[in-house]
Amino acid sequence: MKSRKLIFFILFSIMIIPNSHYRSVSANPMLNASDTVPLNFSENYQTDWDYNNSFQPTMPNVTQYLDNEFSDFDPAGSTVYTEDEQVPGYNGMWYFVTVTMTNLYITNDHDIGAGEIFIEGGINNADDRYPASTEYSMNDGENQVLSDMIFSGWAVTLGFNLEIRESDGALDDSLGFINGHYDNLVNESITLWTDINEASITFDIEVTQSDTVFLASELLEIYKPELWVDDETSSTEMPDFVFGRVIDGMDNGINALVLQYFFYWTAEYAPDLIGGFKTHDHDYEVFMIFLDKIDPIFPYRYVFNNWFYTDVTEAPSTTIAIFEDTTSTGEFVYDVEISPSLQGFLGTNVSLNAEVHDLSEITDWQYGLVSSENAFTYTPNGVVSVHMTVETSYHTFDLGPGGTEYGFAYAITPLTDDTIIELYSIIEDTFDAGVHIWTYFGIDIPKVAPFTFDVTQVFTAPYGITAYANVIDNAAAITRAQNARLDIDVSGYIGLNFEVPAEVEITHPTQLSYGTNSLSLALKPNIDQTEITLFYGLSVNISYVFWFMSGEILYDQQGEITINPFTDEVTSLAGLLGLGDFERSDIEINDYLSAGFVLHPTLLGPIIEGELSLNLLEVIKNIFKANPYVRIIIFLLEFIVDDFSLTLSATLEAVIRHDIQTTSMGVSLSQSTLTYSDETPQTIDVIIEEGVDLSQGVVLTIPEADYDLDFYVDWSLELGFKSPIDSVIPDISIPIGTLPSWTANLLTSTGGSVTIPGPSPQSSSSTEISDTGSESSDDAGVNGPVVFVIFSYIVVTTIIVRKKK
């Protein structure tokens, strides 16, 4: 019975006692725990600068400038043809035609007896007499057999212009006119009656060849105007050259061909009535014909400089005449911007006066102040053109057959790109020769007139665009153009602020033991809260005079851009002086950062490789373009500035270094400094001497951490100009400085300490005694009930053995 009680007691104890705990001795299982040391790298850098400079460059050679700036002088979206280049798409045909008059019939001889009849005029602007010096004697209802060839040559159409007359002494009688054009060119015989039906002529038409190929030189010859000269000076008034080219492009929905003629004289003279003196060397007039390629026989627009003026102070006229099929007639003022590449020597814009007329007015045009006549005519090739008179010694134009007839007997010289460059280059002589100061007339005129036409704008009203008012009318502009100058005053500041939070995670055994203990240290940056802020202030004052351009740009701004390199977003808060603050968020960083570098979204290792450029011009445009007060500043800035960038050049290798030390006696570390170039954990050994009392734990301290770079970063402000300023002012690099100049440390963070449980003198090098108190511990010591069970088992076994004995 006693044995049974004892066994029951032992089993009961096994069930109850596991809830009781005892002081125990345990081997170290090397289970891990971790502690962290917080870091925060925060630093601010700023530098200020002030840059002043004034440039007075030597004026470039205009010919060289044009050679560099222009590959051609073609209007945008158009194609230019000159000389023997074939013009595609012209909807017409050439015919080689021979026309012979074979019969003359009259119904009224306008005389008591037989009438003395003759024919005047011809085909395609010919003006002949048949018979040459006599007449045909004819009565009413009679026929006269003829064999006169009145046309033989290439023609697009046949334009008839004949009058049948009866010679009657001082005043001839007219039997009427045969007018009109005939475009059904085939082999046939036709009879045409006069407008009053008193006579008719029969014509034999013979077509021997045809062709659909038209060269630029041929079109310019076909349509050129019939020229007359109203001579007011003893100097030659016929042009020395007439240059021409064909431009193929779109004109407000019309598939158009523009025939662009420039009439050129080596000099211009005043009328003989006021002395006939030379006013200046070189003179130019433009004449333009617009054709619809689908129906090209009759032009739809003529453009030239109108002739009228009242005295020399108004000469020459600056009013452009436009004749077109329109209902919007009258006088208009056009404000036109000169083509950008020509603005240097023509100015930026010009205001032009134009008189717009309907085409029908040409049929009854008043010329020479006294006459009125149909100014249309047929060219020798049968298309419609106009009579054009060079009015006055100032070479302006007027419609109508006034003065001396020169007809079509003048050649067209190809207006090639080289010729255009040669014409524009005359402006160098304008600069060198200076001006006439004519106090009597109250005007100043350059001694050498430059070529002032914008040849690249033919589809912009008023079409014959000239900067005459910018160059010739303003003699002061010539003096100013000779003294090109660019003054730049740029001041400001640039700064960087870094905020890089992180922590060092130390992974260690739950309790250190005597001997060598391995610890792992890893750097953990806080990506979400990492920010790099660029703040800046910028004040710009640029004034310039370049040939016939001048202006001033004033700009003043402060702001900041905060970059999180891991989200690729920019938050900008900018204050514009005098205009208050406003905010713009979520701007892609790529809008501002240029190509040519690699930006790594990391805090360790290579951060930037190559060149990083912050485009301040784009920042200004994109952030402030919605503000109405700033638009004009942006417009002016963009007008001459091509590039305005903040640039740094670096290969930025970032590392974090920190010392690690202990103040615990009898403890040493395998390393005293750790370096992180990435987030790979670093390992150190903690060596504890045998028998040292470390019951208070082992203290590990990171005094501070350094965020280091191994070289420097160069900052500069890059300023580049647009054409034509860039041809004389090279791109400017304004050194801001080396910011910062690092040989090692970039940022520093305070560190911290951790305490790791250590061994006491009672433990061996591989075990320790741990007082666990009243709480259970599965991690250290030996469980008390296990000892009790073993002890109870030994006692029970002993009792049983003795009982058996």
Structure description:
The longest helix is centred in the last third of the chain and has 21 residues, at 784-804. Helix 1 packs antiparallel against helix 11 and helix 9 runs antiparallel to helix 10 (631-640). The strands form nine sheets. Strands 2, 30, 31, 32, 33, 34, 35, 40 and 42 form a nine-stranded antiparallel beta sheet that branches. The chain is mainly β and 805 residues long. It is 13% helix and 49% strand. It has four domains: 2-24 and 782-804; 38-55 and 488-756, no CATH class; 94-211, Immunoglobulin-like; 216-481, no CATH class. The two termini are 17 Å apart. A hairpin with an 8-residue loop joins strand 15 and strand 16.
Number of helices: 11
First CA to last CA: what distance? Answer: 17 Å
Q: Total number of β-strand segments? A: 47
Average pLDDT rating: 76
Q: What structural category characterises the helix and strand content? A: mainly beta
Summarize the amount of helix as a percent range: 10-25%
Low-confidence spans: 1-29, 309-316, 568-589, 764-798, 800-805
The Rg value, from CA coordinates, equals: 50 Å
Give the overall shape, derived from the CA principal axes.
Answer: elongated
For the record, the count of structural domains works out to 4
Portion of residues in beta strands equals over 45%
Q: Largest sheet, described in full? A: 9 strands, antiparallel
